[in-house]
């Protein structure tokens, strides 16, 4: 790739406001000494990307200016960092999208995901916003880049970031080997949690969702049984040792509490809306339930990439659709329909119109 073609800018997926998503050409910023230029191959559409498009905000992060979306990206280094840090040109990489930073609030230093000044690619938490990487080319700090193990395809590696979220959540659950686990919410993160649980040796994995499609994916990834979210009686009878809540709804959290055995741990992965939530919190007291939060991840991506490469972490069924960058709006429309889609990938190297079936 020539410097001239880089200087001409790159196609990027930009959200301008509620319902206003555009594919437009944006110039690349000048790379600093510790930044590399990446040719992006794939990007996975995340729930936060959908929220910015549908609502103009993700939680309390409100869109105030046009922003390039995307933080689940993989690609190839075109120009390595001038200071020699990070991988060199031609290296295939996954991207760790966080930039931990201190702030006024205290936090455990060994858990940088909790640093109060942390920024994330494609986030409106701060202004000016942190631009994302849904772009044909992206300028990124070399410290964000993780070299792919030999034999791992870029397409499979595109799931490394959400799989790291799942890996971190399962770690927060403690030792799951031989235990009965309930997973509430079988979207892409919930299904990846199922895959990580299977690798970790869980004896029973019961997945819950409102749609059959996600439940079928959960079974393909290792769920031993599945339940519909409407079957409250069956959920209550599970009496799980550990529950992972990944629906991000108060109803899902209520189901998690009702499906947990006394003394169980509930890991809350799905991000609930800000403000008060109507959940039966008295159950946490009378059953001595442990409610544990799980937020993003730290250095788990290296372990995830190795597990993807050696085949011990099977994730391919999570990807249900793949679109070219020119069909970004159609891709987002598909991703918003959780009944018929799992993880939707954008293929930044594909300029053809339309979508291709996953697989």
How many DSSP-defined strands?
A: 21
- What's the architecture of the largest domain in CATH terms? Alpha-Beta Complex
| End-to-end CA span | 28 Å
- Tally of DSSP helical segments: 11
Oligomer: single chain
**How large, in whole angstroms, is the Cα Rg?**
20 Å
Per CATH, the superfamily of the largest domain is Medium-chain alcohol dehydrogenases, catalytic domain
- What is the total number of structural domains? 2
CATH class of the largest domain: Alpha Beta
Compute the average pLDDT.
94
- What is the percent of helical residues? 25-40%
- Given as residue ranges, the uncertain stretches (5+ residues, pLDDT < 50) are 352-357
Strand fraction band?
25-35%
What spatial form do the alpha-carbon principal axes imply? globular
Largest sheet: 8 strands, mixed
What is the CATH third-level topology name of the largest domain?
Answer: Quinone Oxidoreductase, Chain A, domain 1
Which structural class is indicated by helix and strand composition?
alpha/beta
């Amino acid at each position: 790739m020539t410097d001239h073609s880089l200087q001409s800018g790159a196609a990027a997926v930009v959200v301008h406001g509620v319902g206003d998503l555009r594919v437009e050409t944006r110039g690349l910023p000048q790379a600093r000494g510790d930044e590399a230029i990446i040719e992006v191959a794939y990007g996975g559409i995340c729930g936060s990307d959908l929220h910015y498009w549908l609502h103009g905000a993700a939680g309390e992060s409100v869109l105030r200016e046009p922003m390039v979306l995307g933080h689940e990206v993989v690609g190839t280094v075109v120009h390595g960092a001038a200071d020699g840090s990070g991988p060199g040109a031609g290296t295939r990489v996954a991207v760790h999208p966080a930039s931990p930073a201190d702030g006024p609030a205290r936090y455990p230093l060994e858990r940088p995901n909790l640093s109060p000044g942390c920024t994330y690619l494609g986030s409106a938490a701060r202004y000016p916003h942190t631009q994302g990487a849904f772009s044909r080319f992206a300028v990124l700090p070399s410290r964000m880049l993780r070299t792919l193990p030999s034999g791992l395809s870029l397409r499979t590696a595109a799931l490394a970031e959400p799989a790291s979220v799942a890996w971190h959540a399962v770690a927060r659950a403690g030792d799951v080997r031989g235990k009965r686990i309930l997973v509430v919410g079988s979207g892409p993160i919930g299904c990846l949690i199922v895959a990580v649980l299977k690798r970790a040796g869980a004896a029973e994995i019961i997945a819950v969702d409102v749609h059959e499609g996600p439940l079928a994916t959960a079974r393909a990834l290792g769920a031993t049984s599945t339940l519909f979210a409407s079957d409250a009686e069956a959920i209550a009878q599970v009496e799980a040792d550990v529950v992972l809540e990944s629906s991000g709804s108060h109803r899902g959290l209520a189901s998690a509490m009702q499906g947990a055995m006394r003394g169980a741990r509930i890991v809350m992965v799905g991000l609930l809306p800000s403000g008060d939530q109507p959940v039966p919190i008295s159950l946490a007291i009378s059953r001595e339930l442990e409610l544990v939060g799980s937020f993003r991840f730290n250095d788990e991506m290296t372990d995830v990439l190795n597990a993807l490469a050696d085949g011990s972490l099977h994730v391919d069924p999570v990807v249900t659709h793949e679109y070219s960058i020119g069909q970004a709006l159609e891709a987002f429309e598909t991703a918003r329909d959780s009944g018929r889609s799992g993880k939707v990938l954008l293929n930044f190297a594909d300029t053809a119109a339309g979508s291709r079936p996953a697989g």
